[in-house]
Every structure is written in structure tokens, then in C-alpha cells.
């Protein structure tokens, strides 16, 4: 019976039935699967696509509405759950303690903090893969000697202060861990929610056309900040370009959301890739100049994409100027690494491999390739010196 909880079992069975021409049975199986696995995106998407093949569009719309609804609820659930845990710990962190109640308050605060952390980390659905450190026994065991001493003695007060400081550090560490878990879980939920909307937009474009897509897009666009990732807006812009054949609208969408995702190198690279593919050389260069000096310009991804563009389509003056800027910007860059990049095309990099002797673009990062190049050149000079 456990096999019924594996999405692939249902999907492969339905596809097999469909290949035999038993489409109604295939759809019925996926309907059953969607009821058993209501949160499985694979099952829900397969069910909607099977219904679409059979022209049962009401089922499709209901399924996609179900998907975006439960995915949005997932974001809200994670937000509420972790916010409650953090609120409890923040209260314990700032809870005042008097001298007489120091030991008792410390014990209670430690126990509650550990309970909150343990409850959060033990939830297998949310973050069971996190392994928290074991609670420090010294946080909860005050020792018989402390209990025996007078609470107003100087030694007892010093020990109480030390324990209070240690407890505070422990709670702060737990808060930091829970904040990390919260953000990780929210990122997973955001990506899934975004994917749900993209699949919904694709279906709408196929069944109703681009005008219906524009109407539907208003809903996710009205969501609070942080509910969706940049992928949705890339998908919407590219639909305008490829389906509606309106490059001007696509460019406006990319430009508009460049303000929202100005700190995302991935989004800016998608924007640049669109400009390159649409032949807008002027704006490719303008986009690079706008962002290369920002925080995302500190990574070499945008630089590498722009360099590939200039190497393929720019003139020699622009190429030479860019290479100099590249070398000045990144410590690991050199004349050789720039040549290795320049004298290559797609996966053809025989100059880098056979003449410079480092596996450029073959599973190594640029930094590793540059280090390999320096080592290779150093060994070569040493061998020449020996001769």
C-alpha cells in the first residue's frame, strides 16, 4: 500500500494506459492520485495535462487553481510557524531576571528555549533534516553547590551572571539557526509557488491565448513582495517575445523588474541574455555598464557573459578595453585567462587545454583554471631554468 504514495507509480501507470488508448482510465487514475497526493506537483501537473489532452479544460483550470492555492498556503504556514518560534525565543531573550529568581528563571527560560528549538527541528515535514546540537547540560543543571549557597553571596551572583550570559548566547544561537531554517524553507516555497504560476500561465496561453495570460498575470503580480521569485517575470516577458511577437513589451517587462530584482545576478543575466538574443547590442552594453559596478558585479558571471558577447560580436577596441577592465577587477584574472576565453567557442577550447595547459571550462571554475594556469606556467619556467 505504500506504493500509492509515490507519484511516479501513478504517472507511469496513467501514461501506460494512455498509450493503449484507454484515456478515460488514465485520467481516472490521475484523479485518484491527485486526491491521495494533493500536494504533489508532479501528480497535479500530470493530471492537468492529461485532462488538457482530452479537452476537459474545466478540470485543468480547477487543478491549477488548487495548485497555486495550496502553494500559497505553504508560504503562509512556514511564515506563521517560524515567526511563532522566534517570537517565543525573543521573549525569553529579553525577559528580565531578578537576583532571587535567577536560578529558577534561567532553568525555565532554558527549558522553554530548548523546547521551542526541539519542536521546530523535530517536525519531519518542515525541517527534519536539520541536526541541532545537543543542549548544553550546564545550561540546565545549576549544581547542588549553587542551591546550597546563599543567593546574595558574591560568588553566587557571579555564577548566576555567567550562567545568564551563557543562556543568552545559547538562545541567540537558536534564534540564528531558526532564522536560517525559516529562510531556507521560504525559498523552497517561493520557488514552488512560482513554478505553479508559470505552469498555469503556460496552460492559459495554450488554451486561451496571450490576452488571457496577461489577465491571469495580474494575480501573482499583486502578491506581497517575497512571495515569488524572478522566474515568473522572465517567463512572462519571454511569452510576450515568442508568442505575441512583441519584443518592445518584453523589453519593458524586463526593464521594469530589473528595479525589483536589482540585487539578483541571475535575473540581470536573464535580461542580458534576452537583449543579446533579440539583437539589441546598445542596451546589452548599457545594462552591463549599469550593473557591473554594483554588488552583483563583484561576481564574474555577468562579466563572463558580457565578455562572450563582446568576443563574438564586438570590435577589437572594445575587446581590448574589456579585457583590461577584467584583469583589473579580478585578482585571479590574467592575460592568459582572457586569451583562453577569447580563443574558444562553445566547448572548443584547444588553446586553453593543449597550449596553456589548464582545463578551462571543463569542470573547473574560473578561479581554479587561473590557479592551474599560474601553476602550469611556474612549472614550465622551472623546467626551462633546469635546462
From TrEMBL:
Per UniProt, the keywords (alphabetical) are: Nucleus, Repeat
Which residue intervals make up region (Disordered)?
A: 91-163
Q: Which GO terms describe its biological process?
A: mRNA 3'-end processing
In which residue ranges is the amino acid composition biased (Acidic residues)? 116-137
Which Gene Ontology CC terms are recorded?
A: nucleus
Q: Which residues form the Suppressor of forked domain?
A: 2-354
> What broad class describes the main subcellular location of this protein?
nucleus
Family matches, as SMART domains: HAT
According to the record, the segments passing through the membrane are: none
**Domain of life of the native organism:** Eukaryota
- Compartment list: Nucleus
Q: Where is the composition biased (Low complexity)?
A: 151-163
Q: Which PANTHER family does this entry report, sorted A to Z?
A: CLEAVAGE STIMULATION FACTOR SUBUNIT 3 (PTHR19980:SF0), RNA CLEAVAGE STIMULATION FACTOR (PTHR19980)
Q: What is this protein called?
A: mRNA 3'-end-processing protein rna14
Which organism's genome codes for this protein?
Coemansia guatemalensis
Amino acid at each position: 500500500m505504500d506504493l500509492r504514495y509515490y507519484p511516479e507509480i501513478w504517472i507511469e501507470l496513467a501514461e501506460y494506459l494512455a498509450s493503449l488508448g484507454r484515456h478515460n482510465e488514465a485520467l481516472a487514475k490521475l484523479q485518484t492520485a491527485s486526491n491521495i497526493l494533493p500536494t504533489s506537483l508532479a501528480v497535479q501537473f500530470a493530471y492537468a495535462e492529461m485532462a488538457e489532452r482530452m479537452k476537459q479544460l474545466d478540470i485543468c483550470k480547477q487543478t491549477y487553481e488548487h495548485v497555486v492555492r495550496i502553494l500559497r498556503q505553504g508560504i503562509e504556514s512556514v511564515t506563521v510557524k517560524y515567526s511563532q518560534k522566534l517570537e517565543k525565543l525573543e521573549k525569553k531573550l529579553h525577559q528580565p531576571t531578578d537576583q532571587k529568581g535567577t536560578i529558577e528563571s534561567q532553568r525555565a527560560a532554558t527549558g522553554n528555549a530548548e523546547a521551542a528549538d526541539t519542536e521546530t527541528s523535530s517536525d519531519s515535514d518542515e525541517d527534519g533534516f536539520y541536526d541541532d546540537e545537543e543542549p548544553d547540560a550546564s545550561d540546565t543543571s545549576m549544581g547542588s553547590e549553587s542551591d546550597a549557597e546563599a543567593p546574595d553571596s558574591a560568588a553566587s551572583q557571579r555564577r548566576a551572571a555567567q550562567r545568564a550570559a551563557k543562556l543568552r548566547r545559547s538562545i541567540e544561537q537558536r534564534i540564528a539557526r531558526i532564522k536560517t531554517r525559516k529562510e531556507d524553507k521560504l525559498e523552497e516555497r517561493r520557488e514552488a509557488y512560482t513554478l505553479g504560476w508559470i505552469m498555469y500561465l503556460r496552460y492559459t496561453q495554450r488554451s486561451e491565448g496571450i490576452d488571457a495570460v496577461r489577465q491571469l498575470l495580474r494575480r501573482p503580480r499583486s502578491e506581497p513582495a517575497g512571495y515569488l521569485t524572478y522566474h515568473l517575470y522572465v517567463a512572462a516577458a519571454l511569452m510576450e517575445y515568442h508568442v505575441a511577437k512583441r519584443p518592445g513589451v518584453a523589453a519593458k517587462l524586463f526593464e521594469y523588474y530589473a528595479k525589483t530584482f536589482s540585487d539578483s545576478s541571475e535575473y540581470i543575466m536573464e535580461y542580458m541574455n534576452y537583449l543579446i538574443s533579440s539583437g539589441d547590442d546598445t542596451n546589452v552594453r548599457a545594462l552591463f555598464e549599469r550593473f557591473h559596478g554594483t554588488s552583483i558585479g563583484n561576481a564574474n558571471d555577468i562579466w563572463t557573459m558580457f565578455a562572450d558577447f563582446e568576443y563574438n560580436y564586438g570590435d577589437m577596441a572594445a575587446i581590448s578595453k574589456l579585457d583590461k577592465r577584467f584583469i583589473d577587477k579580478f585578482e585571479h584574472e590574467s592575460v592568459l585567462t582572457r586569451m583562453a576565453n577569447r580563443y574558444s567557442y562553445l566547448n572548443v577550447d584547444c588553446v586553453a587545454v593543449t597550449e596553456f595547459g589548464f582545463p578551462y571550462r571543463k569542470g573547473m571554475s574560473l578561479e581554479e583554471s587561473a590557479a592551474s594556469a599560474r601553476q602550469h606556467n611556474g612549472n614550465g619556467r622551472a623546467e626551462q631554468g633546469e635546462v
